[in-house]
Write a structure and sequence with these properties.
Radius of gyration: 38 Å
Distance between the termini: 79 Å
CATH topology of the largest domain: Acetylcholine Binding Protein, Chain: A
Order of helices and strands: HEEEEEEEEEEEHHHHHH
CATH superfamily of the largest domain: Neurotransmitter-gated ion-channel ligand-binding domain
Strand content: 25-35%
Shape: rod-shaped
Amino acid sequence: MKKVLTILIFLVGDVCFATNRKKLFQDIIDKHDARVAPFDTAADTIPLSLTVSLMTIREVSEKGQTISLSFWMYMIWQDHRLTWTPSSYGGIDSAVTTSKYVWTPTSVCLYNEINEDKCFTDERPVSLTPSGWSSYITSRESVTQCTIDISMYPFDLHNCTLYVGNLFDNVDFFKFNLDYSSFNTQYFVQNEEWDLVNTNVREVYFVGGNTSYQQVHFDVIVKRRPAHVLLSVLLPIIMLSVLNIFCFVLPIESGEKMGTSMAIFLTFAVFLTIINDSMPKSDKTPYFTVYLVTQLLISGLTVVLESIVICVHFKEQENPTDKVFPLDSTATDNTKSKLKCGLCKRFKISGKRLDNIFMIFVIFTDLTSLITFLALTCR
């Protein structure tokens, strides 16, 4: 019997509560004309607060100069026509409807959105409070314009901004309230390629004619994660440059110097062709690309230098006295030997000595190019 009474009490309570909520909608919301804004003149301007809740960074396109973001947009304003006394409606202190039945600021738009759907006009849930505060909530998969400078690749840092403003500033008399606007990253999920460094909200005014237009800019500062590029691209290039140096260590008599230097040069050429396909495309040349091309030129120079070393080495093997005394049979072997030693000391540079000089030059060039690249990008 007690269980039956308990169930009846809950049913009666639910019916009463549902009746109160129905009465609330009939008295307040149904009498409200969603087409009419809660102001008549500029003197009735209402503050509008914006909050962007960033979910994730989907993609940063260097070629398209765009950034793709997933976020929730919260718009909060006060409509004095949608107020009620909670005690008159069974203590109801909140109500939820859709933007179809209440006025919403449909002229709020994302100016640098590249898709056609720039304004927040979709039918979405709207939360109401007894004091008239209304909250419009919508989600967006947005692709916006972003100026991307990859000259510091792969240590590049970019500031991408969402430009939010009123499309009809002289008609819809609401002003953005920066004091209560925010950028929320509580539910942000990190991207595998990009780190979220910082976010910022700022107010910007544009003057056109005799009217100033207000915008709220939501800054998203992102930085590339360089680990993948360093391990898969930079480290192999450094290893190939080290192998280039070892070409000068190989003995000249082995006959492998030219073959090894040519093989490394061809490896550089093929490897850089593959890298070029995966490199971001931009009108600004990255320092990283300059470094890769420099290493390719050094590898090609190594082939030329090894050719000089081999040529000098085999030239010094020739007997210089045969050219000095081609028909002089009176010159004794002792005289020729002395003359040969004198010429070697005064005029000749051996192939081994050239190998050492060229090796020092290539090491210096490699280190200079690497240090310069790191100094320019790791700032």
